[in-house]
Amino acid sequence: MEPRVNHIIEETVVTTPVPPPAPKKKSRLGKLFTDVLGGEFLAYDWSRRQLNYIVFLAAIGVFYISNSYYAESIVRQIDDMNRELKELHYEYISTKSKVMNQSKQSVIIKKLENSGLKESVEPVRKIVANKNQQ
Fold this sequence. Notes:
single chain; elongated; 4 helices
């Protein structure tokens, strides 16, 4: 019998050079998005030509936002004023009813009993003065 020996078999492996993977082409929108976020779009010639327009659009955006905040504050103030107006109207109605109740003849008579004043039993007479008789 033949002794078993581990034999190393050398194989030559032929490898062909693998080209590096081609970089992914970014879409125009993706490139524009990354340029805007990175600030690189400011270096482009077309952005320098359009700088006045870009500043104008930014100013309009700021004005629009401030105008909406102002309008919301005005609406809140109007709501507060309407609420206060309702409360004052209810207070007016209740005060008016109290005054009407306090000014009734029967209530006034009851309040004046302790002071010694009494209700007149004679009817009211009208005094007429002629201007010619003076």
